[in-house]
Design a protein that fits this description.
Length: about 180
Amino acid sequence: MKPFLKVDDTITLHLPGPALALDVYEAINKNRTYLRIWLPWVDDINHPNDTKTFMEESMSHNSAGTRLTTFILYGEKLIGSVGVVRFQKEHRKCEIGYWLCEDHQGRGIITKALRALMAYLFKSKAINRIEVQILCGNERSKGVPLRLGFQSEGIQRQAVRLYDQFFDVELFSILKEDWLLRNEV
């Protein structure tokens, strides 16, 4: 399977397709308890057919340019996802999201994957601003944008309702000019 982006010798990003549906389901199911703490969509994935439907929706969004879903493979194993959850083309900005299997965290994988995706977005998609929203309390996830040079723009109070509770959300952003100062695109 040809990757969408090669991150390094072991990490690749792949576009959604039917061949990945079962692997995505198994990764989510194995990490359900952990992922559910921060991600509202986990409860909607209860059967391999749910990920088939998600693959079809993701392929449609990718084709339409409204999102860009990719899956992280570490060697041959699917271990997470990184992508654009919302493009705002008229403003040349987007919002990204990511998740990673618990047993692959702490190795810099998501940081490397996101760095590769960001370089692609700034260069190939003419994006000027990338945002990420992280639920307050998710310190591991918060470290990723900070390592990549994002700036905190503040807390949105009770901005997300998850499992009948309201959570504050911290907004991070990076501009293309900031990225260029830190990286080669």
